[in-house]
Structure formats: structure tokens, C-alpha cells
Write a structure and sequence with these properties.
The complex is a heterodimer of chains A (151) and B (384). Chain A starts with a helix and ends with a helix. By secondary structure, chain A is an all-alpha fold. The radius of gyration of chain A is 16 Å and the shape is globular. In chain A, helix 2 packs across helix 3 (55-74) and helix 5 (104-114) packs across helix 7. Chain A has helices at residues 3-25, 28-44, 55-74, 93-101, 104-114, 120-127, 131-150. Chain B has 384 residues and is mainly β. Chain B has helices at 16-28, 51-60, 64-68, 196-204, 254-258, 301-307, and strands at residues 80-89, 92-101, 105-114, 121-130, 133-134, 145-148, 156-164, 172-184, 188-191, 208-211, 216-220, 224-228, 240-252, 269-271, 274-283, 288-296, 312-316, 329-340, 346-356, 364-370, 376-382. In chain B, the strands form six sheets. In chain B, strands 4, 5, 6, 8 and 13 form a five-stranded antiparallel β-sheet that branches. Chain B has a five-stranded antiparallel β-sheet with strand order 14-15-16-19-18, with helices on one face. In chain B, strands 1-2-3-7 form a four-stranded antiparallel β-sheet. In chain B, a hairpin with a 5-residue loop joins strand 18 and strand 19 (346-356). The longest helix of chain B has 13 residues, at 16-28. The chains are: A mainly alpha (151), B mainly beta (384). At the A-B interface, helix 1, helix 2, helix 3, helix 4 and helix 5 of A face helix 1, helix 2, strand 7, strand 12 and strand 18 of B.
């Protein structure tokens, strides 16, 4: 993969990567750092990409790992009251809060399907879970999200 | 749920500084910078607890074919090798009953049991190798993790592993896996959904609080509030003791590799200045791996994007029935994206692995490329 292709592929995934990182980190300052690290790590590890057909799921997986890593680093310093907010509220704040209330194990599969339009197979690959597991988690996420929205 | 159809609304628009951070980093890379050693995607070991899968496991006996959803009388059975590997750490046991490989992919079942669910443990896969080569998760270094019993009320969790193998010269495959077992030093309260008020109440009662089965929120008087959804091994300082389980097993690759065949490729089909072609097929009793391409003549990047509106690769049988890749042919890997040829032309590529599950694949499948505006081209592919 040459640099021009890489930049083009990253550009095409920018909004999706932002949402994935935001779903994990929840604030733009950390998300910016995570996106920067994602791009650098993706280029550094481009040799692990079997072919460009997998770029979307591959780079999403890297973004998830980078974001989780940042969570671990910041964890001891965060309190519920001090958790930073996004600078720009999402259009549907109620939905956003309900989504954030879900555990990550349910939130990520749900958002990858409904927000990023991934198939069960693609989500299975991104999250490294059996497809049946992905289906179950999405079903459970929808149930819990419905409860949150009705509460 | 209509609001799910617009889940984008749950996220703020990407601010300029985030976009700049990403694109500046992407543009800053140097062409001459060599990529790191190729690493291979691997399905996460300690992952899901699905009521459905557990039910199947209990009803039919958990093994690698059950994990993959393959019928026991499938030809894939010929590639199954018994493993019978196990390890134990305190109240936790990890056992592997069987594995299957065709030399390209490896899958195996596993069962983890915590015989004392009153004392939950965190499990983290910390090392996983094939013939000494570490199998990473897409070039990054952390594995998934799981709280046990978590959602598993009986303390037992069954799942499996599906991963692409590195290129191995040997005809013997030696697999090693190390799972860290982390035990909290306080009673644990498992909470399904994040609820700050309820968490505080449980803290006051002296509990660690675990949210969602795989995330954790721990209150420790010395470390203060610890919040997050990441692997637990970074917080051993707040009251977790570690032990480990190591399992190893060996598989024969010679017969597995001999089972792989490469059928003759069909001639590409051209329609309306586009070409649909199959680039490679490899078939083993475990899986059918197909790489196909859709190439409009002299397509620019913009052209191929327009050709991709509502696009879809699909497989049909000869009677015109679309193959349901979930109910019939599981596709653990199914990727479609834009590729650039050395001559600068752009094309779409499908790279998929089909596993026969509820039914067998037909001898001939019809590969179809179709778009939202009604364009459709098809290519019969003989598999057997």
C-alpha cells in the first residue's frame, strides 16, 4: 500500500473512525489523540493487512484497540463527576446518553451495525467474535437501549 | 426501533480538530518507512457468553464443529483432530476438546469454568502462539478479556477460536496459549447497565462493581475511583491477584494441507464494459475461499465509488435462490472493498470464506454483482 492510497483510505473512513473512538472515549480531546495514533499505528502495521479488501474492518479494529488503550491510561484519573463532555452535543442527546449507558460489549456491535452499516460478518471480524455472538449482543443491546429510552 | 435507523444522531459531528489530527497523522507517514512484520488476525479467545451458544453447547456437546456451526456429518469432520488439553488455576479450569485446521485456518473450541461463581475472576489472554509465532490482533498487542461468571449463571462459558494461521513451513502445528486469571480481593457485584447511583450504593456496601460483564468499575480506597472498560491487568495494584493457565496442543498439518484443492477458475464475464472475474478458489473440507473482482473498464476512483452505490456481491444457486450466508453458509470472513490495479484502474474485490453449516454448498454457485439501479451481472462458479 502506498502513501497516497493510505491517505485516501483513511480519509474515507474518517467519520466512521471518529464515531467508533467517541463511542469508547466520549470526549473529543481523547478522540483526537486516538485518531492520530490510529493512523500512525495503521501505517506502521500495514504489513499485517492481508490485502486492502480488509482495510475498513482492520483499521476499525486498530481504532478500537487504541481507544481502549487510552482508556486504560487515563482510568485512574477519571471520576464520574470529572468525566469530560463532548464539546458539541450530539443531535440526539437522549439517544446518545442511552447508548453510552450500555456496556461497551453491547454498545460497539450495535453502533457498528446501525451507525457504520457493517454486516454481521464485518462486525464479527472487527470485534473478533463469532457471528452468533455478534447477533446475540446486538439483540441484547437493542433490548437494553429500548429500556433506557423508555425510562 | 426507528431511532436506531439514525444512530449517527447519537454522535456529535466530527470536529475539525479531530479530522485534522487524523489526516495530519496520515499525511505525515513516510513512504520509506517499512511496515512491521506481518501479523495475523485472530478471533478473540475469551469473548462472548451467548445464551444461544450455551444452549447449543449443553444440548449437543461443545466441540469445534458446534462452535463453527458445522453439522457433525459434514466432510469437515475429516479434518477434526482431538486435543484434550486443559489447565487449571484455583477454581478456574480451561479445556479444549477438539481443533480443526486445513493449514490456512485454525479453529478450536474451549470451555472455561469457574467452580466457585461466588468468587468471580477476570480472564485475559496474554499469549497465543503457533509454532512460536505470536498471533496478534491486527498488529496491536492487547487481547479481549472476560469476567467469569459474568453472564454465565452456572459459572461455565463455552466458545471457540477461529484464526488465520501464519505461513508455516512445518507439517506440525504447536499451539500455546496463556490465560491470565485475575481474582479480586473484595466481593463483586455484577451490574447489567451502568447506573452511577447504584454503583455508589454498592461501593458504600463494600463491593467492587462490575458493569456489563466485560467492563469494570472498581472503587478502591487507596486508588480512588477507577473507571473504564479495558483489560484488567493494568490495575493489579488495586486488589487483584494473578495466576495463569497455560494450554498447549499439537496438530498434524500434512493431511490437512493435502485436503485443499484449487478448482479451475471460470472464464471472466464481460457486460456493459464491466468484467466480473474469480481470481482464486481454494476448497478444503473446512472452508471455501473465494476471491472475486468486479472491474468497470478504465474506472477512476470516483467511477468505482459510483459503481458501488447499493452494490452487492451475492451468491445464488442454479435455481435462482440467494444463498443465505447466515442460515446456510456461514462467512466468517467476508470483505468487499475498493482496490487499485497496478495500471491505475480501480475495481471492487470480494474476499470471502464460506463454511458449510446447515446445508451443503451447491456444486455450482452463481456469483452475482448487482447495484441499486438495477445493473446485474453474474458468473457461474463450479466448486466441486
Amino acid at each position: 500500500m502506498d502513501k497516497e492510497s493510505f491517505v485516501r483510505l483513511i480519509d474515507g473512513r474518517a467519520d466512521s473512525l471518529y464515531r467508533v473512538a467517541w463511542a469508547i472515549l466520549g470526549n473529543n480531546a481523547d478522540v483526537a489523540d486516538a485518531l492520530q495514533e490510529t493512523a500512525l499505528r495503521a501505517w506502521q502495521h500495514r504489513g499485517s493487512l492481508r490485502n486492502q479488501a480488509y482495510f475498513g474492518t482492520w483499521v476499525t479494529r486498530i481504532c478500537i484497540n487504541v481507544s481502549r488503550g487510552m482508556l486504560r491510561k487515563r482510568r485512574p484519573l477519571i471520576s464520574l463527576e470529572d468525566a469530560p463532555e463532548a464539546s458539541t452535543p450530539p443531535p440526539d442527546l437522549t439517544l446518545s446518553l442511552a447508548l453510552r449507558a450500555l456496556p461497551e460489549s453491547l454498545r460497539l456491535p450495535l453502533m457498528l451495525q446501525y451507525s457504520e452499516g457493517m454486516s454481521y460478518q464485518e462486525i464479527s471480524r472487527v470485534l473478533h467474535l463469532p457471528e452468533t455472538t455478534v447477533r446475540g449482543r446486538i439483540a441484547r443491546a437493542k433490548t437494553q437501549l429500548r429500556k433506557e429510552l423508555e425510562a | 426501533m426507528n431511532r436506531l435507523d439514525n444512530l449517527h444522531a447519537a454522535f456529535p459531528a466530527m470536529p475539525d480538530d479531530c479530522r485534522a489530527a487524523l489526516m495530519d497523522a496520515a499525511c505525515s507517514v513516510k513512504e520509506e518507512e517499512k511496515p512491521m512484520r506481518r501479523k495475523y488476525p485472530v478471533a478473540i479467545l475469551v469473548a462472548a457468553i451467548l445464551t444461544l451458544m450455551t444452549t447449543i453447547a449443553i444440548a449437543e456437546g461443545w466441540n469445534v464443529l458446534a462452535f463453527l456451526g458445522i453439522q457433525p456429518d459434514s466432510d469437515a469432520q475429516t479434518l477434526v483432530q482431538p486435543v484434550s488439553a486443559s489447565a487449571k488455576a484455583g477454581n478456574v479450569t480451561l479445556s479444549i476438546d477438539s481443533a480443526i485446521t486445513d493449514g490456512e485456518y485454525l479453529a478450536f473450541d474451549w470451555t472455561v469454568t469457574n467452580t466457585n461463581p461466588e468468587t468471580p475472576v477476570y480472564l485475559v489472554v496474554e499469549d497465543f502462539t503457533a509454532n512460536g509465532e505470536t498471533i496478534f490482533t491486527d498488529g496491536t498487542d492487547d487481547f479481549d478479556y472476560q469476567w467469569l461468571p459474568g453472564w454465565c449463571n452456572d459459572g461455565s462459558m463455552m466458545d471457540g477460536e477461529w484464526s488465520q494461521l501464519p505461513t508455516l513451513a512445518d507439517n506440525a502445528l504447536h499451539v500455546e496459549m496463556v490465560v491470565g486469571v485475575y481474582t479480586p480481593q473484595k466481593p463483586v457485584y455484577l451490574m447489567d447497565v451502568f447506573d452511577a447511583e447504584a454503583i455508589r450504593q454498592k461501593w458504600d456496601e463494600g463491593y467492587y462493581v462490575i458493569v456489563g460483564g466485560d467492563g469494570f468499575i472498581i472503587n478502591d480506597p487507596e486508588a480512588g475511583l477507577v473507571q473504564g472498560f479495558g483489560p484488567v491487568n493494568t490495575v493489579t495494584g488495586v486488589g487483584l491477584s494473578r495466576s495463569e493457565m497455560k494450554v498447549t496442543f499439537d496438530l498434524d498439518l500434512k493431511a490437512a494441507r493435502a485436503s485443499v484443492s484449487h478448482p479451475e477458475l471460470p472464464a471472466p464475464v464481460t457486460k456493459d464494459s464491466t468484467t466480473l472475474a474469480v481470481q482464486s478458489i481454494s476448497i478444503s473440507p473446512l472452508q471455501t475461499h473465494i476471491v472475486a473482482t468486479f472491474t468497470p473498464e478504465n474506472a477512476s476512483y470516483g467511477d468505482i465509488v459510483r459503481w458501488s452505490d447499493g452494490m452487492n456481491f451475492a451468491f445464488y444457486d442454479e435455481d435462482g435462490n440467494e444463498l443465505d450466508h447466515y442460515g446456510m453458509c456461514l462467512m466468517p470472513m467476508y470483505e468487499v472493498t475498493v482496490e487499485e490495479a497496478p495500471d491505475g484502474a480501480w475495481f471492487r474485490q470480494l474476499d470471502c470464506n464460506l463454511i458449510e453449516v446447515a446445508q451443503s454448498l451447491p456444486d455450482t454457485v452463481i456469483l452475482v454483482y448487482k447495484t441499486e439501479d438495477g445493473f446485474r451481472t453474474e458468473l457461474p462458479v463450479t466448486l466441486k
